[in-house]
């Protein structure tokens, strides 16, 4: 099928990387229905860094999963670069995800048997693509690991392993980088190195969407979206960690 470009309410066309348009997601379980998201509309502009915060169970992971096309909304739409994910079949969705999105998680998900270089190259290899060695080296250089390309994950610190995971996500130059608690397992110094990298990634034109519990991590973002009970209940722009912590503690009361 031909992918149709579409513009959602609230989006202004090509400068919007990800659009969430009236998203809801309900889960059915034996205990009854859970409304994890109850109508989220937001446009993540290209080249911006957004942090998603909120109390446990507020819907942060669900939002990230839907935005990344890893799960389907109950109602509403997700558009990546103007393309509605709901209109794609599984093959098209897989290709779009591979070509336009990168993922970084709290767990680095690296293979211990492979070098840093081969971990970064792995997604391209799995997709049956030719590995662009220069691009892999470039991605490792971007995260400051050019010299450690031949090391295996057990020979790297936690922070260095997370930087390999970021290099792997950045190597295809994705439009959007989704990060779920990327600094959750790191010490303060390594966390700052990773956050600086995410900040630079956005400043260079890619879009970063990060779920975090940490106000200091969120302070690297241009905007913080606060979720509660599956809805956006607040936003802060260019806020420092203290302002973000205050907003969070008000939400948790
Ligand atoms: N597969 C599922 N089946 C049933 N309920 C679910 C499922 N996944 C999530 N939920 C529920 O949906 C709501 C939102 O969950 P979600 O994981 O998105 O929250 P979160 O803000 O990421 O939480 P945390 O900060 O604890 O990770 C919660 O009430 C959760 O229990």
TrEMBL record:
Domain of life of the native organism: Bacteria
Keywords linked to the UniProt accession: ATP-binding, Nucleotide-binding, Transport
Domain ABC transporter, residue spans: 18-252
CDD domains found in the cross-reference section: ABC_MJ0796_LolCDE_FtsE
SMART domains: AAA (SM00382)
Name of a matching Pfam family: ABC_tran
GO CC annotations on file: membrane protein complex; plasma membrane
Any one Gene Ontology molecular-function term assigned to this protein's record: ATP hydrolysis activity
Designated name of the protein: Putative ABC transport system ATP-binding protein
